[in-house]
Specification:
CATH architecture: 2-Layer Sandwich
Structural class: alpha+beta
Order of helices and strands: HEEHEEEEEEHE
Radius of gyration: 25 Å
Number of strands: 9
Number of domains: 1
Distance between the termini: 40 Å
């Protein structure tokens, strides 16, 4: 009996584990740009800063600014102090947690309504709750505006959103920043006003 009970519980644990595996949504991105400013994009000097009015924790924002600076350098920009920059990249980030509507234990075990001994015929009742694999989902909204330093005109703007489960490697802010920034600046500057999805390998 003990051996059979262990086997059933092991199977239940395996199923529950499969249902609660890491989940990562595609990164949804939208980009806008001024057609007349295309020649300015992807070259010259740039400074990365917080967007006006942003109240995010500087430590939370730091990995996103670093990831964006790295992407801009790959595109051909050279990061310099603000006073020397021809363009300014302003960054805002919002991260939020969406909890499952209802939390339940993934596996319940009961003694069939009464207590028995070995060979008594009392059955072991086991129920596997298919909804138990629900996890908290962490959402990230990233926005970047690139302005001409002289005129303050916005010459490019990008927005990116992703949602990951709390047991995903991309729940970590540094990994999250890297994957979202990479998607946002893929095929830069992008088609004006078009919204696309970039799938994440996990």
């Amino acid at each position: 009996m003990k051996i059979k009970t262990f086997a059933i519980l092991a199977l239940a644990g395996t199923l529950a584990g499969c249902m609660s595996g890491p989940r990562v949504s595609p990164v949804e991105i939208t980009r806008f740009h001024q057609s007349a400013a295309i020649a300015q994009l992807g070259n010259g000097t740039i400074f990365v800063e917080d967007a006006p009015g942003v109240e995010a924790d500087p430590q939370e924002l730091a990995p996103y600014k670093a990831a964006i600076a790295a992407e801009l350098a790959e595109l051909g920009y050279r990061e310099v102090p603000r006073a020397e920059a021809s363009q300014i990249a302003q960054v805002r980030v919002e991260r939020f947690i969406s909890e499952p509507a209802q939390r339940r234990s993934p596996v319940t075990v009961g003694g069939g309504g009464s207590t028995g001994t070995y060979g008594s015929g009392v059955g072991l009742g086991i129920g596997i709750n298919l909804g138990g694999g629900q996890r908290e989902m962490i959402g990230t909204d990233l926005g970047v505006m690139i302005r001409d330093a002289a005129s303050s005109d916005v010459i490019w703007e990008g927005r990116a959103s992703i949602s990951v489960s709390d047991n995903s490697e991309f729940a970590d802010s540094s990994a999250n920043a890297s994957v979202v920034a990479d998607a946002l600046f893929s095929e830069f500057p992008g088609n004006n006003g078009e919204t696309v999805e970039v799938r994440v390998n996990n």
